Amino acid sequence: xxxxxxxxxxxxxxxxxxxxxxxxxxxxxxxxxxxxxxxxxxxxxxxxxxxxxxxxxxxxxxxxxxxxxxxxxxxxxxxxxxxxxxxxxxxxxxxxxxxxxxxxxxxxxxxxxxxxxxxxxxxxxxxxxxxxxxxxxxxxxxxxxxxxxxxxxxxxxxxxxxxxxxxxxxxxxxxxxxxxxxxxxxxxxxxxxxxxxxxxxxxxxxxxxxxxxxxxxxxxxxxxxxxxxxxxxxxxxxxxxxxxxxxxxxxxxxxxxxxxxxxxxxxxxxxxxxxxxxxxxxxxxxxxxxxxxxxxxxxxxxxxxxxxxxxxxxxxxxxxxxxxxxxxxxxxxxxxxxxxxxxxxxxxxxxx
Length: 352
What we know:
The chain is α/β, with parallel strands linked by helices. The chain is built from eleven helices and twelve strands.
């Protein structure tokens, strides 16, 4: 079920500034400020939480079960039901949303972190590929994104000038975002993998984010203007890149349909598009016209803490509803090469 029978809302969101490297702190130390901020905003403490779910990747940390270290930041006592997903925190939010739907809890803490600087991200992400035919070739994440960009250019859907404009708009928007790693426009730079230049690619950075979900009257008590999750769904493409049309994203389209994204216009959209060409694909899949503000935070091109970037998209959209800057917003998260796995959430605020 993708349309909730109960009211569930994002009632608080916080994130840490995305930094090129946080080698001077542990995962728990990096996460702690975000956790404190969302709990302070709601007045909740660990003992009040009905469920805790986290998202991260042991591949980035380079050691097994590294996610358990962040429980030091949550607090070991009193014990609470806890879970973890080995992927972006947006999917941890989905698990928490399902848990609240069961009625077993009325609040949930969702957190995610990523220390991308701990290894070579381009190579680490290649380990998510098909282990028999593709991974042995070691195509890195930027090379695969470049294939997608070139396919769009060959299809006449974009060109390098248009991609540069996408980068310029996102990073200009990020100028007012204190958490962004790259703020303000900058030159596109040299080719990384043609046709993608430095400006078409996300920065490597470390960061964390946290969200609190709550149901019904609890949400109204904890937040002046909750961001109600009106629909949420995620879908996946075939694993083999050769079976996919890289210029389209049918999984994003289907997730959006199931989440109710096309039932009414949205004011803004936060898209998890680490590469400029991927925003082109997502805008088409989601029918986003020029009247929709896309990535007012700067998006993943301005800050890309792996495993937290998707959760941040949901949090950024919710925060604008909290502040009364939007009424209906769309948030998108992705995982895997070339937009393989996609999640879409529709958030809405109460009418004044």
